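2024-03-11 09:14:02 DEBUG pipeline.ingest accepted 1 chain
2024-03-11 09:14:02 DEBUG pipeline.ingest length=182
2024-03-11 09:14:03 DEBUG pipeline.predict start
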Amino acid sequence: MFIYNFKVNGSKLFKYIFTGIVLLIIAILIFVSIKLFIGAKNNRNVSSCVPQSEISEISTKNYTNVLKSVHENIETYVGVKIKFTGYVYRVLDLTDTQFILARDMIISSDFQYVIVGFLCEYENAQDFENGTWVELTGEITKGNYHGDMPIVKVKEIKTVDKPNEEYVYPPDDAYIPTNGVL
């Protein structure tokens, strides 16, 4: 049988524990600072990816993110010119000059979808049948359709073929609105 004697020096033990805790806090602060720096750098990259032209083009990849951001911050996006593709969709209570430029958003793994899109106004809207795929350029305005709603005033519109990627996916939680820049 072996017997061990340990003599614990309380002040030395306290110094080691205290030093370890301080080093851990410093390491956490450094890690958080690096993450903040990288995040700020990525935000600059987001704005540099946006075309520097007058018109922001909405793609299949960012369609629902932009749609969500514009609906949540209408005032910020009023006056922004956008270009995007979708199909003409009408509901019963729209006027003759209104339609929804729609896309089908997948909501489940068995391809169930809902229709999402921007309400658009165009004087010759009746020239386009329901289900017609179009590409349009317009300006976001604030209007009223069952409450405040962004409405795209159509400047240019043309018929196009159905795109290969006709479906869009729900908004990405990591999407960061860029205050008026799409």
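2024-03-11 09:14:41 DEBUG pipeline.report The domain at 55-168 is CATH 2.40.50.140 (OB fold (Dihydrolipoamide Acetyltransferase, E2P)).
2024-03-11 09:14:41 DEBUG pipeline.predict end
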